[in-house]
Amino acid sequence: LLRHFSSIGFWGLVNNAGISTFGETGWLSMEKYEKFADVNLLGSIRTTLAFLPLLRKYKGRIVFMSSIIAYFALGNGIYSMTKAAIEKFCDALRLEMKKFGVRVCIIQPGNYARSTKIQPPVSAEEIWNELSEEEKAVYNKEYVQERANFFNSILSEGSTNGNEVVDAMVDALTSPAPKARYMVAKLKEKALVFVCALFPTVVMDSVLSYALSK
């Protein structure tokens, strides 16, 4: 594969693969954590390392699909964890590749769940049935149902204009001066990122706790 691209040139790589799920920290198995890290984080790293020699040779572009969820978590900490990790990988890679003329860009979409179908609606019954006995002793079905309803309401608010994210990806690949980060999100989502990034953690926790209690 690499030999084939060596003859025709290799100009751009988009790391877009990702999976998502819902669940509080103790509800998810170690196997699930490993699977998400393997797909969302290590998958992108493996692909990048494989094509890095060609990208350096042709001064190409590398685009990574992150998320505003890299800044905060609302019931999907496992997904947030992988996106925060990929952001740090990109930050290191972007600086290292600058001397080779390779641009590294991050796309940070807001809620596009209705466009991507990355997360199906959550079933409280399925979540409850998969909980360990220890977790069932701490939580109850009513709590799980409330959290599932909350998360499903977020999914239902997702934008259907997935073309906005595609446009950002195209710009990252073709613009003479691409941005390091493209945040493609609603105003209220950008405001939440602003709070999480610049305000003290206690403020961030208060805002997110309020959102979770609604």
Automatic annotation (TrEMBL):
Keywords: Membrane, Transmembrane, Transmembrane helix. Gene3D superfamilies: NAD(P)-binding Rossmann-like Domain. It comes from the Eukaryota. InterPro entries: NAD(P)-bd_dom_sf, SDR_fam. The keyword Transmembrane helix applies. The gene is Bdh1_2. Belongs to the short-chain dehydrogenases/reductases (SDR) family. This is BDH protein. The chain crosses the membrane at residues 62-79, 191-212. It holds the Pfam family adh_short.
